[in-house]
Amino acid sequence: MGLFIGGESMIVVMEPRATREQIDAVVKKIQEASLGTHLSVGVERTVIGVVGDSHTKELLRQSLEATSGVERVVPILQPFKLVSREFKSDNTVVDVKGVHFGDGSVAVIAGPCSVEGLEQIIATAKAVKAAGAVMLRGGAFKPRTSPYSFQGLEEEGLRYLAEARKETGLPVVTEAMDAYQLQLVTKYADMIQIGARNMQNYTLLREAGRAKYPVLIKRGPSATIQELLLATEYVMNEGNYQVVLCERGIRGFDNYTRYLLDLSAVPVLKELSHLPVIIDPSQGTGKRKYVSPMSRAAVAAGADGLIIEVHPDPEKARSDGPQQLTPEHFRTLMSELDPLAKALGRRMQAPLLTR
Amino acid sequence: MGLFIGGESMIVVMEPRATREQIDAVVKKIQEASLGTHLSVGVERTVIGVVGDSHTKELLRQSLEATSGVERVVPILQPFKLVSREFKSDNTVVDVKGVHFGDGSVAVIAGPCSVEGLEQIIATAKAVKAAGAVMLRGGAFKPRTSPYSFQGLEEEGLRYLAEARKETGLPVVTEAMDAYQLQLVTKYADMIQIGARNMQNYTLLREAGRAKYPVLIKRGPSATIQELLLATEYVMNEGNYQVVLCERGIRGFDNYTRYLLDLSAVPVLKELSHLPVIIDPSQGTGKRKYVSPMSRAAVAAGADGLIIEVHPDPEKARSDGPQQLTPEHFRTLMSELDPLAKALGRRMQAPLLTR
Amino acid sequence: MGLFIGGESMIVVMEPRATREQIDAVVKKIQEASLGTHLSVGVERTVIGVVGDSHTKELLRQSLEATSGVERVVPILQPFKLVSREFKSDNTVVDVKGVHFGDGSVAVIAGPCSVEGLEQIIATAKAVKAAGAVMLRGGAFKPRTSPYSFQGLEEEGLRYLAEARKETGLPVVTEAMDAYQLQLVTKYADMIQIGARNMQNYTLLREAGRAKYPVLIKRGPSATIQELLLATEYVMNEGNYQVVLCERGIRGFDNYTRYLLDLSAVPVLKELSHLPVIIDPSQGTGKRKYVSPMSRAAVAAGADGLIIEVHPDPEKARSDGPQQLTPEHFRTLMSELDPLAKALGRRMQAPLLTR
Amino acid sequence: MGLFIGGESMIVVMEPRATREQIDAVVKKIQEASLGTHLSVGVERTVIGVVGDSHTKELLRQSLEATSGVERVVPILQPFKLVSREFKSDNTVVDVKGVHFGDGSVAVIAGPCSVEGLEQIIATAKAVKAAGAVMLRGGAFKPRTSPYSFQGLEEEGLRYLAEARKETGLPVVTEAMDAYQLQLVTKYADMIQIGARNMQNYTLLREAGRAKYPVLIKRGPSATIQELLLATEYVMNEGNYQVVLCERGIRGFDNYTRYLLDLSAVPVLKELSHLPVIIDPSQGTGKRKYVSPMSRAAVAAGADGLIIEVHPDPEKARSDGPQQLTPEHFRTLMSELDPLAKALGRRMQAPLLTR
Questions:
Q1: Which pLDDT belongs to residue D6?
Q2: Checking CA distances to A74, which of A211, A250, C136, D288 falls within 20 to 30 Å?
């Protein structure tokens, strides 16, 4: 048995016919990065371990991959840090004005896809609170696939959200799509949402990291788990550790649902990261009739919460009507989730009494 | 308001610059198929409704799509029949020697990925029965990606399965990959499994349809919901209505799980079809640690059952060790599922008393 | 044969058991939108045509989908306008300081992934020009998956690009990720790149639409063709019609390439839209060795141009080294493309003489 | 620099908190498989190299992945052998009655989707030969998604194919879906096609391996490159080395094409394997209008040939009419491919003179 005390951060697999010169060039490049090498010469392949860790290892990895004679480079350590369980082993609990994500309870955020008027948002806020929601959602700036769709009430919408919070006490989460909107959102709301289409908008992620506000970051429809965690790393790297992750459906190939809700992301994310994970079954399925079964499934899979679209009159909604629940339907769902949470040894988080 | 008494089975959308001759050709073709037409002439597009249904409408659809000037053909009616809720509105209950799929209870099938020996399968059967499984699984003919992997004990494996049934009373499901194997499977087992890789093996589907045995059909990793239902239609079209559908993970783009378990397939399939739907969280995730959360989620989403891989010593398994549970782990999972089912107003199906 | 003079913009398919009341509600909703209806009552389904077009039809579509009794709504007209062949039937030629995209010739943009220094960018610009490139690329603001990767030289990089243009006469394209960067990019460069990760950054798209600069818009890795065209519609809707589309690889499930280069997007986009389409084989495959075959294939598929990463020393590149060509490799590729273009009845566009 | 003479076939990455006992268990398991170990102990992770190769290494890999404390196992050597470039470095040339695949020329197979009658197949064979096709295709056994679609003329169709060969001298390729059909196919045709839906039908692959007939194996729509090569390994492992690989479109998420034609598979497969690679642009796009551009692109990407659907009257075709070319359209395409091949330093293979 060969024994080596080292600690490899990545492993370079050379091509079958790599020459001595190519191997030497790889070794030299690793040593120039002030890292050690560990050479294993085989009949078919030579394998070179990179010994030691470095904040420039990502650059080294790319450089090695670009080197002639290299077949591939296998990273041993995860590319993310602050977000990882290895960095922080216990669950992070994110506190949004008394609402807790990650403490073992199930926190339900609800509200309309878009804020459409003061009356609409206040009525919805009251209804969802009555049914047990602990936070209010509602889009004021709407990312719409088509420029001809309703784009949101903008600052007016934010003011209405603040009014609804005043009426119900429910903290508010709403999306910002650029630095200007983000500033407005932090003025009126309690949690900043980074939408799926902006998951890799690094300017925005950094701004959200600098804001001293909790952030809800949604996975992009083609984002790998690793890309979601690295996007989150952008926020945390600016010093903001109050982040909740959200799976909201990835791109699938079947048309019966709008997106493909990836519930296995719940246990995978909770294993890799200490951050809370919630599920958006409304966006994730795009159809009202699938929201209840997927909400139940999300809670059973271990999600820390849900974000559900509820509209007083979905048929009249100015966006995403097909996936919004009526208040009545939402009430029924909440009444189903309560015994379910208990059966799982958990509990539904209740709206704060003081409200 | 235009009013028309007709009943369109499909709608032909013409290209923006379709000529009068092209429109006439489409109309003629529909009429030759003894179906009516319903022409709607607009400024930008002409739309032609095909009025009436016919068993040759699939052929007509393809012919129309191939006709010049046609942009696309939109089917109005579903392409499947026997499998559909429209054909049969109440749930089908599939009875496998007293085990029921589709009656509202949760039926759990468990057992090793592969049958590896008599002792192994009997020990597993006893252990899973003790934990509450109602049926035994175990592969005798194994579809393996590599020809250098273990291919199963074949008929010997089937004999061992029959022995294990004798010992425990648990009915047995096992996979057949061709007509010869299918004949053997029906000799020893109680339910025929059509594996994901053979979901569109039409020869096999027809053979399974002719066998008077219950069939478990697994969704292929790139199969749409519609393709799964049409594959099932092959079985039912031969007169065999005892079919259970199984989602076992589709092809995703993330490597943290082996496949992407599509739990939204549960409510979608149960809406479109009257057949029972079960989930395979072992194949669907490929990793032991995700089996429990995804099993719970499957039940919460409304699955009629689960099929779970359990091995007395997964580290020594001859196939798929990483995803097999130990009997102990399985017992814990079953004890979690019981209160969960109750909270959902359902119950775990228990092994038959007479066994 | 039913005949109806109308012109349907969408068709509402009712559920099999839709009631008379539900049908009436749909009809009423359509009429309230000042559009006509065209009812077709069948044995199994009722189908309702929406007659007439309207700028609010997208909202109506969503509202109808949210209406009870509706199974689905089938749009007949495309949701995009300005970008479509129906709006403008002849090819748009985008002129970037004398470089033409869409005139039938093949225009090749080349340069490093990132601008790393003045010397590097000038050397690359000279080398790619000598080999036949007509435009220079190079990232000054880099969207990187990890916050720990090199993020670009920012304004300094833009200044170097402008220097390289002065030296070689090659117009410059470079990416902007937010409004502030966009302003800087228009100060130094000749064409604004909207990167794949920002394809649905609507704030940025609108800003690019307001700038009087040509725009290169890259398809996001999970974006459908329709989403790409709708994103482009955002730019054009602000009055900027100088847009080049770029396919750069979508999310696939195989790891031998980094992304899955979708070359069928070339004929599909050129059929649906009048805008030029180019291909990025460097991002699209992620590996140097596949750049040449996929460049040839792109030209053969009808692409109006290519954007290729070239670095004087890819092994030392600060980003994406594995996919960058050496100047020598690029020269060889260009010498292969020349006879290929001729064989297709096309020509390689040459760098302007005055440069 | 650590130096080690060994030759690792795989590398075991332990979990961050793996215990000494877990590491020992892994080492013991490797040694029991008569392979060496090479331990590298780091601060964050321990990495264990498996030294030496063995035909049971696939089993060992799975066993190690199932072992507690193991995070993942990274294979260093490819899992396939006979199919690989490492096994045979020069290109395999497959000879089908004088037609050569893999000799640098472009071989075009053409014919209808389905054999529909004697006249139809003879007319098509003559037309495609006149245009330059060197082999005839045509389905006698049709794998159809729906049981209600035309399933082929079966043995009668094979007889017609043999007649068409007699008339034109074109060798014939046609699909078999089970052992019985395969026997008939070898009686009448010159090359066995394994269709995409049967790519992992291992019974069929083994039968094809035992037949002394050239095999055309199509990539399944969700198959990775590695799975395609392992499926081919089943054929070769039975002693049949006359195999041509075919990419025919994978499952994508966009509906403008039926499948997503993955042209990067051409250079990837030709790098990994010595076998010829052809492209099916008809299945791969599903639409006639995209067949020409994608055929040109396939040749430019380096494909050894094409298989194209041609029907005398596509609008009357009994299957896949929308994607079949008319003889005239095919003639035009062939006349475009000729100069293209020459520009690439290749040539179109011509039908044999003796025919």
A1: 58
A2: A250
Interior/surface letters A189-226, b for 16+ CB within 10 angstroms, e for the rest: bbbbbbbbbbbbbbbbbbbbbebebbbbbbbbbbbbbb
Query: Is residue A3's pLDDT more than 60?
Result: no
Chain C residues lying within 8 Å of D256, measured CB to CB: 225, 268, 272
Q: Do domains A8-75 and A94-343 have the same CATH topology?
A: no
Interface test with A, best of C65, C233, C238 (most A CBs within 10 A): C65
**Whether B54 contacts chain D with CB within 8 A:** no
This prediction has a pTM of 0.93
**Residues D44/A86, Cβ–Cβ less than 8 Å:** yes
Here the tokens at position D90 are: 């020069």
Contacts of D181 in chain B (CB under 8 A): 203
- Alpha helix (H) ranges present in chain A? 20-32, 57-65, 118-131, 155-168, 179-188, 202-210, 225-236, 265-272, 281-285, 291-301, 327-343
Least CB–CB distance from D38: residue in A2, A5, A74: A2
Task: Assign C77 a pLDDT band (cuts: 50, 70, 90).
Answer: confident
Chain C residues in contact with D227 (beta carbon < 8 A): none
Searching chain A, which residue's CA lies closest to the CA of residue D30?
A1
Give the SS3 label for residue C89: coil
List the chains bordering chain C where 3 or more Cβ pairs fall under 8 Å: A, B, D
- Put simply, the answer to whether B268 touches A290 (Cβ < 8 Å) is yes
> Would you give per-residue pLDDT tens digits along chain B (355 residues)?
455 555 678 889 898 888 999 999 999 999 988 888 888 777 677 888 888 777 777 778 888 888 889 988 988 888 888 999 989 999 999 999 999 999 999 999 999 999 999 999 999 999 999 999 999 999 999 888 888 888 899 999 999 999 999 999 999 999 999 999 999 999 999 999 999 999 999 999 999 999 989 999 999 999 999 999 999 999 999 999 999 999 999 999 998 999 999 999 999 999 999 999 999 999 999 999 999 999 999 999 999 999 999 999 988 888 888 889 999 999 999 999 999 999 999 999 998 765 4
The ranges assigned to domains in chain B are 8-75, 94-343
As given in the structure block, the two tokens for residue C132 are 């036949």
Structure tokens at D104: 């640098």
Nearest Cα of chain C lies from the Cα of B338 at a distance, in angstroms, of: 36
pLDDT greater than 90 at residue A151: no
Instruction: Domain C94-343: give its CATH architecture.
Output: Alpha-Beta Barrel (3.20)
d(C-alpha A28, C-alpha D1), whole Å: 11
Taking only residues 247 to 276 of chain D, the set having a beta carbon closer than 8 angstroms to any beta carbon of chain C reads 250, 252-257, 260-264, 266-268, 271-272
Do the beta carbons of residue C319 and residue C150 sit within 8 Å? yes
D 197-236 near B (Cβ less than 8 A): 197-198, 200-204, 220-222, 227, 230-231, 233-234
Which residues, 6+ apart, have CB-to-CB distance to B338 below 8 Å?
B132, B348
Reading the block at residue D165, the tokens are 């060969």
Q: Does C277 touch chain D (CB under 8 A)?
A: no
**Residues whose CB falls within 8 Å of the CB of residue B98, separated by 6 or more in sequence, listed in order:** B171, B352
Instruction: Please choose, from the candidates B317, B316, B309, B304, the residue with its C-alpha nearest in 3D space to the C-alpha of residue B284.
Output: B309
Contacts of D318 (CB under 8 A, 6+ apart): B59, D114, D116, D150
- What's domain A8-75's architecture? 2-Layer Sandwich (3.30)
> Could you tell me how far CA A188 lies from the centroid of its own chain?
22
Task: Give the residue among B289, B304, B202, B291 at the shortest CA–CA distance from B249.
Answer: B291
Find the residue in B nearest to D224 (Cα): B251
Q: Which strand (E) or helix (H) includes residue A216?
A: strand A215-218
Q: What is the pLDDT of residue D39?
A: 82
Token pair 């019985």 is found at: D180
